[in-house]
Amino acid sequence: MPLAQNPLSVEVTLPREDVALIRVEGYLDVDTATEFQHHLANQLHHGRRHFLLDLSAVPFMDSSGMNIILRVYQEAREIPGSVHIISPTPAVRRVLDLTGVSITVPVSESFDEALSRADAGAGHVGQDEQQT
């Protein structure tokens, strides 16, 4: 039973009011994806615009996990906001690359890199909003 040996652990920290750093540990699959989705939905509900998903402790992810990442990516873009994946394990990175998710959702090697990318994107949106 992989689920019993590898339950999903999700830790949310807020580096800033509009940024949620979400550290995921364990298998991100059909059995655990709903829990992951609830954490993301809760952060959206509380006004977070930028989601930094640390997948460095996720040994396996199936299409359920990918679909949730793509869904929050679409929702964040509408806010406007962003989603960034941080340090995926080699197995997860392979799935992201093979499915093309890593082309759509930026993948960073560190928290600082992901936050800089979120800020770079947010800066452009903020300037556009001020001009209108």
Automatic annotation (TrEMBL):
InterPro entries: Anti-sigma_ant (IPR003658), STAS_dom (IPR002645), STAS_dom_sf (IPR036513). PROSITE patterns: STAS. It holds the Pfam family STAS. Coiled coil: none annotated. GO terms for molecular function: anti-sigma factor antagonist activity. Gene3D superfamilies: STAS domain. Belongs to the anti-sigma-factor antagonist family. PANTHER family: ANTI-SIGMA FACTOR ANTAGONIST TM_1081-RELATED, ANTI-SIGMA FACTOR ANTAGONIST TM_1081-RELATED-RELATED. This is Anti-sigma factor antagonist. It comes from Streptomyces lincolnensis.
